Amino acid sequence: MIQSNYMKLASMIFAISISVASVAQNQVGNSKQVIAILKERVMKAADSSILLSPITVTANKTDRSAGGIHDFYSDGDYWWPNPEDVNGPYIQKDGQSNPNNFNAHRLAMIRFSQIVGNLASAYAITHEERYVKAAMVHLKAWFINDSTYMNPSLLYAQAIKGKVTGRSTGLIDMIQLTEVAQGIIIMENAKSVNQEELKKIKYWFMQYLNWVTTHPYGVEEREAKNNHGTCWILQVAIFAKLTGNQALLDYCSNRVKTVIYPNQLALDGSLPLELKRTKPYGYSLFDLDALTAVAKILSTKTNNLFTYTLPDGRNLIKTIEYLVPFVMDKSTWPFPKDVMYWDEWPVAQPFLFFAAQEYNDKKYFTTWQRLEHFPTNGEVLRNLPIRNPILWLNK
């Protein structure tokens, strides 16, 4: 009798496992489908990345920076010399990037993110340790090595000549490390990872979390109502996930529900704070990408930010549904064109990928599938910190 019951139970468990596997395979945008689409180019990028040497903030120094050689520095994107006072403080031209900005540190950080993203994605596909070993060289250069590390703060980001040596808005540059952190999560249990080095790397992120949650720049950026507030949560959430800081994860989740969604999502699904900008299309895409990435990082079985709905009915799916038609056919966009980089958007926006997986909707997946997955334009890369979908398939 006991054996008979055991056999029945085993049969039930087997049937359930088969059913779950079947559901997973039928899921729109499942791992098999995504890897099939991206594998060839991902592996090519990874095999190129494996040959590259690290370039960190110490490789380039500018006299514009009030910091030291280990400090990240960037100029405010939309600030220009005053034609009426060439030696005076810069003036703002919203949405128009100054081509003479110092961008070396930002470009180095983007390159770092691309390299780690490429290598971690290749490891996720193949489980070959050589990709992890190559990634660790770059991780140690940025976070451990005495001669090349970056300080865990952004005191001198998006400075403005004649006005400030750094700003709270500069913290948005740190979203470039989103996939560095996610890549570490993917690779941290690999055999070739030195656990003492991993602790040092995670300690760097712990130090940054302490800085960004307590320094006046961090506090001010946290309170921003538009995409800057979203991106504060994006970086804090993924770094908290990497370092196992559950208190910060809970804080971020609560803030999304009580501050971000109420202040950003309109009843019709639009993002009014982004529509006010001189690049309403690009900023709407950028913020929605960040919002869905945040939902991906923070959602749990009992707390799903993709389905969380405010009392008046506003939620993330309405915002996704609002923007998708304008991604499918940009000519229907009812607002002014962006003052710069109008033609470069859209690309394979990560919000489409996340939405396809979460809502199991083929429309999102096929739209994502047909768009450019490997853009090269610098402005696009700056505003697309989620570039490697394979890193987000399971974790």
Describe the structure.
- With 395 residues, the chain is mainly α.
- It has a single domain, classed as Chondroitin AC/alginate lyase (Glycosyltransferase), CATH 1.50.10.
- The protein is built from 15 helices and four strands.
- It has a two-stranded parallel ribbon with strand order 1-4. Strands 2-3 form a two-stranded antiparallel sheet.
- Helix 11 crosses helix 12.
- The longest helix has 25 residues.
- The protein is globular and about 55 Å long.
- The two termini are 42 Å apart.
In short:
This protein has 395 residues and is mainly alpha-helical. It has helices at residues 2-26, 31-49, 104-126, 129-143, 178-187, 195-214, 216-222, 227-243, 246-264, 272-275, 280-298, 316-328, 350-359, 362-370, 378-382; strands spanning 73-75, 79-80, 91-92, 156-159. The chain has a two-stranded parallel ribbon with strand order 1-4. A two-stranded antiparallel ribbon has the order 2-3.
